[in-house]
TrEMBL record:
It comes from Streptomyces collinus (strain DSM 40733 / Tue 365). The keyword Transcription regulation applies. It holds the Pfam family GerE. Keywords: DNA-binding, Transcription, Transcription regulation. This is LuxR family transcriptional regulator. The keyword Heme does not apply. InterPro entries: Sig_transdc_resp-reg_C-effctor, Tscrpt_reg_LuxR_C, WH-like_DNA-bd_sf.
Length: 76
């Protein structure tokens, strides 16, 4: 089940993402690569990958497009 937050589904619970997960999501949604995101955040690309895997697991998201839609719905 995918969680897509739109104005029509405002009653859906807000995803519980850690601040660094939200920051990572913002960078990826902006079109940055894992390596670019890692460099900007001062992390390894493996840590960025781990953050994104956690986001996907928490929210049952499988594609980058879904991640991007989530970021937009969260105002990131």
């Amino acid at each position: 089940m995918s969680l897509i937050l739109t104005p029509q589904t405002a009653e859906a619970p807000a995803p519980e993402l850690a601040p660094r997960e939200r920051e990572t999501l913002r960078h990826i949604a902006a079109g940055r690569t894992y390596l670019q995101t890692a460099r900007h955040m001062g992390l390894s690309k493996h840590t960025v990958d781990a953050y994104l895997r956690r986001i996907r697991a928490k929210l049952d998201i499988t594609t980058t497009a879904e991640l991007t839609r989530l970021a937009i719905s969260l105002g990131l």
